[in-house]
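User: I'm new to structure prediction. If I give you an amino acid sequence, what do you actually give back? Let's try with this one:
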Amino acid sequence: MRGLANSVSRITAMARARALPLPDLNHRLTPLGRFGTNPGALDALAFVPEDLRPGAALVVVLHGCTQNAAGYDHGSGWSRLAERNGFALLYPEQRRANNPNLCFNWFSPADARRGRGEALSIRQMVAHMVKTHGLDPKRIFVTGLSAGGAMTSVMLAAYPDVFAGGAVIAGLPFATANSVPEALDRMRGHGGPANDRLSSLVTGASGHRGPWPTLSVWHGTSDSTVDPVNADAIVDQWRSLHKVEGQSERSVVDGYPREIWRDSSGRAVIEKYDIKGMGHGTPLDPGGDGDCGKAGPFMLDAQICSTSHIARFWGLADETVGTAKERTGTKARPAEVRGGVGSVIEDALRAAGLMR
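Assistant: Good question. You get back a string of structure tokens that encode the predicted 3D arrangement of the chain. For your 356 residues, that looks like this:
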């Protein structure tokens, strides 16, 4: 970790940042109601298709800083995909009382460990959804952006017995930061455990010894808020657990590089997408055949639908649903979302850390 003076100067700069306004949306997510003791004091919303069949899958979706559940669903298009393919959605939602800028507290051991705080609240929500709607406990998945992506890493490590798979978008590995200054350094790609220690953080998080959740990792190569080195660290944290430490398979999907690691049976257990030229956000394809989401702050038109690709990786969506249109010419380079995004998220981390 870098010196105290450096951290203090960053914290001083953060105080000048202002949160982005939340969208005012008329949305179809509904409150979950009482779901347990809720030690993390989170809110919860859900989307359940009207004709949902017994034994359907569940996807947990974690929004990023300055976002809420309805805004992230509107941008990402998850409820449209869930309605078409017959699975349920759970949206944990942060409260401003916990974090003024609505970040999940992924860097706080009090909230980011098995049986504690926000992580336990999310686990309780999952149990409530499974019981209430007769969902398949073996097909529960989790995804999130930024702080939600880092919290996805937390949930996969803390509850690998609960989740069949996860997808981390512009996030960070589990338990590599345990304070605000460490969080800021990891976001910039500085410090953290050596690669050979990353997997031990996961194995030490629960008594679970496998099988392990599958993993999809997405990151923009021009992300100046969470350095792309974190995507490699997330993959490294899980490769030895899946025993896939050899060479990956490389391909190009919708114009972007994709790597796949397969286990001894040939099953794809880890995938990683490098979204060339994209900044900090969720890659979407609003103009594609699948009508994938709506562009906005942190929801970026990259001409690739991460939502549908992730769902297909988990076996939840048909191969023909949500694919991008064939386009001629050169793929447009996605633009970084600017206007103080990095400082907004840093301010949220600082505020959340001081709250505890």
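You can read the tokens as a compact description of the fold. Here is one thing that stands out. The two ends are 21 Å apart (CA to CA).
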